[in-house]
């Protein structure tokens, strides 16, 4: 099994990719919500940690 340090960069890249995907999905969902005229909540709580 590889040393822990060898996993650090791939895990960081994976985390960024998942965060990017989540942001894209939220954008698509918000666009769909706007498209059907549904009311929005005034605030949205971000998931995950800031980068």
Quick take:
Helices cover 65% and strands 0% of the residues.
Query: SSE order in H/E notation?
Result: H
State the major sheet: none
> What gyration radius follows from the Cα positions, in whole Å?
16 Å
Count of individual beta strands: 0
Helix content: 55-70%
Sequence stretches where pLDDT stays below 50 over 5 or more residues: none
**Silhouette:** rod-shaped
> Could you tell me the strand content as a percent range?
under 5%
Query: Can you count the helices?
Result: 1
* Overall SS class: mainly alpha
Mean pLDDT: 82
| N-end to C-end Cα span | 29 Å
Oligomer: single chain
Describe, in plain words, how this protein is organized in 3D:
The protein is an all-alpha fold and 51 residues long. Helices cover 65% and strands 0% of the residues. The model has no long low-confidence stretch (mean pLDDT 82).
What are its keywords?
51 residues, mainly alpha
Helices and strands, with pairings:
Layout: H1 4-36
């Amino acid at each position: 099994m590889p040393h822990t340090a060898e996993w650090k960069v791939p895990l960081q890249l994976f985390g960024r990719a998942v965060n990017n995907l989540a942001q894209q999905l939220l954008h698509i969902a918000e666009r769909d919500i706007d498209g059907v005229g549904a009311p929005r909540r005034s605030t949205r709580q971000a998931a995950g940690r800031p980068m």
